[in-house]
Records
---
Amino acid sequence: MDSPPTRAARNRYTVPSTRYNGIESRGMQTFYIETFGCQMNAHDSEKVIGTLLSQGYQQVAKPDQADLVLYNTCSIRDKAEQKVFHRLDEFKRDGKGKVFGVLGCVAQQEGERIFERAPHVSLVAGSASYAKLPEMLVQLETGNRRVTGLSLDNDQAFDTPFTKRDNPHRAYITIIEGCDKSCAYCVVPFTRGPERSRTSESVLNEARELGRMGYIEIQLLGQNVNSYRDPSPAGWDFARLLRAVGEVDGIRRVRFTTSHPRDFVKDIVDAIDDHPALCNHVHLPVQSGSSNVLARMQRLYTREEYMRRIEWMKNARRDISITTDIIVGFPGETEADFEQTLALLDEVQYDSLFSFKYSRRPNTAALSLVDQISEDEKGRRLAIVQEKQRAIQIRRNSDLVGKIEETFVEGYNQATGQWIGRTSQNRTLNFVHPQFAAPREGATLSGTNLAGSGANLAGTSWSVRVTRAGPNSLAGEVVI
Ligand code: 5AD
Ligand code: SF4
């Protein structure tokens, strides 16, 4: 076995490892991690990976190759929760010699019950405990078979210098963790605990550092970014923070997710109007078009109040793209309630939406509501929502044919020979480039300076004319 300093030195991170401290170790050297769920989870995994690398572990691409197998889990709907147990079942018999860990929302929700359901699991830790990950790893190393991190009384966001970012151009920054709302269907307040905001200084320092490192896009993350409140004396609200991040040198695009309509104020729309770097896209989950259902969901707004926010955006100087989330079949949703959701889609004309069948979640208020709706009926309503929205998107996207959009390149699609691009409105716009038909071997260029050959356009921006439109993406050609 390598000695720890040698392994640590092989990694980008050369901080001294706290792993050994002279204690006999179980010899874990490699880890594999799979992430389920939202962007918060994706970013948590980046921090977990950074922390593990800093401790001298090496990441591997397949669970078979790993000493430590981690699943960062999601429990937003039952289907998401079941995924981790399917994964763990695959290793029930032939997982000998490996250490298994369940992280994230299922870990927080199920706690020590996971050890009963999957006895080969040794680590169960929710996101509020990741700051203690190095200590938990030491416990695993020294042979502890049951290690838990389940406390939610952590008043700090999980802030680590060891984030291993997945994308060289776009970076996530957590600004607020947890959620203080109590939507009747939602498990998040139980899995991610109470709200904790980071100081504006800490957020801005991270944003500036990312700008210096060459990142061009930042996504501000939180379960409810709109209720951000700077805990330092500056006391900034979200709109103030957004404006400041929109002015950071080098950062060309700023996105944020997710928004709660109750806390969404007009100042956010004004900030988008004032700062070109703030993307003209807002994801504003409505969940239902019926005020009755919204009241039973404990969403704290009516349809009319939601529509007022939509009006702010439609009246903005910039063309703000609006997307949403819809839940169908919430307990007691009548046919008339459902019709109101369909009417809302017609009225708002969303550019895209995520739609879900209501799923019963542990601990939530909606569990006790009578009048649960059958799976068949939920499926019927879901199909209707999706069909209606598809027609809306086909129409809205085809209106863009002929328009020129600033497009940032995210990658290259070998199969179609197109560069994969994204517009400020968060639309996928794939395009061909006459001078750069494909990335070339060893290409490293970034920025818009493409002198010389060997170009990889990822991370560069182009004016692209839209030539074709589908329901979910656009295609075009670069304007030179
Ligand atoms: N059932 C179905 N969908 C849900 N969502 C959250 N909780 C549930 C649930 N219990 C959806 C909401 C939310 C999105 C992230 O997931 O639409 O906005
Ligand atoms: Fe899933 Fe919600 Fe947890 Fe994200 S916060 S991983 S969506 S349960």
---
Amino acid sequence: MSETPSTTKKLYIKTYGCQMNVYDSERMAEALGGSGYTEVSSPEEADMILLNTCHIREKAAEKVYSELGRYKDLKIANPDLKIGVAGCVAQAEGEEIMRRQPMVDLVVGPQSYHRLPELEAKAGHGQKALDTDFPEEDKFEKLKSRPKAKRAPAAFLTVQEGCDKFCAFCVVPYTRGAEVSRPVERVLDEARDLVERGVREITLLGQNVNAYHGAGEGGTWGLARLIRELATVDGLERIRFTTSHPNDMEDDLIAAHGDCDKLMPYLHLPVQSGSDKILKAMNRKHTAEEYLRLIERIRAARPDIAMSGDFIVGFPGETDQDFEDTMNLVREVGYGSAFSFKYSPRPGTPAAEKETKMVDPDVASERLHRLQTLITEQQHAFQDAMVGREVSVLFERKGRMPGQMVGKSEYLHAVHVTDDVAVGEIARVRIIESGPNSLGGVVLR
Ligand code: 5AD
Ligand code: SF4
């Protein structure tokens, strides 16, 4: 395993879906680094193409098949090219992918990608490799050591995977499996490693991250305790976490938003719908009112917090009134940002059985449009309100304009300046303008 490969092979990874896939792609590239691969940015120059896929909505899965179709000519021109499918489509569809696209050499699920080097060695020239197990061994243990090379200052770190909530629309409990938390020490070690590599902001990831319950000193630790411990790591300046479920928003986590300086004032807390009837049908196990009261408590702890959320429109049985309830909830919360989706039936989920209650697609599209318009208005209002304010910005990269540097504010707004700042620097910035997707400012020295 540890032999040094003599030739360098090129790996192209395309990532779909959520931040956890971004994290997984980074880990897969690192794992294949041991087999002599370095990452490249175009499929044309690759010896191996890996699609890290998302299965959350039908469109997301279909995109994968159309992308695979595009690689046909590359495979004909270079029969040595290996094509792999990883992620949640791999998990959900397994061998079906190879049947639909015979040029796929390798299929690997999200829980078994530590076995990627062996699978890669096995695959190619008609040999197929497939692994969609939920193995006994912990993939993170197998992937323990990460390279020491410098990296960008903001990083993701998976602390929890899977979900036991079984929302009626969602494939996650099936593709990512049951809820599992990584032990505290493992998370701390990885965080320290990242900081040594130049990281100053870590976003803790989990499908249900606030249900984190990792083994730590003296017993099981919740997310708030983990965050407070991470806050003691020198050089780590900012902590975020995503995605949370309202029912796991415990008191100490709310309190941390008020008293832990390194925890950023931005919270992604999906509610999905503002109608109690729909929330019940979705198996969310909370009401709209409970969600609103929860936000009041979070805002009492951290008044300037930027709230974010996810919404589904056109869930089976959703009436005009149910949808109006969602619009009203959005008006009442006032989001800094939010994501909204048209309901997409996923095979194997309970909601997909309710075919007779399906909302007319045109009605659903119209609702989605109205909701997105409202959310965009709120997003712009929140962004415009930053003009004249001082924010703190972690600079992540050069911008498109000459001399421009781009970073993120504590509220997750993209901020650009033309001052002399370095990547990885955190500076106070006065916001002077609000553009369509970003803010402009000047660094205060
Ligand atoms: N259809 C539409 N949107 C979905 N989501 C999850 N499953 C579905 C589905 N079947 C949305 C939810 C979730 C986000 C990640 O994706 O809003 O919070
Ligand atoms: Fe899916 Fe619900 Fe679990 Fe989120 S909480 S991953 S929406 S089942």
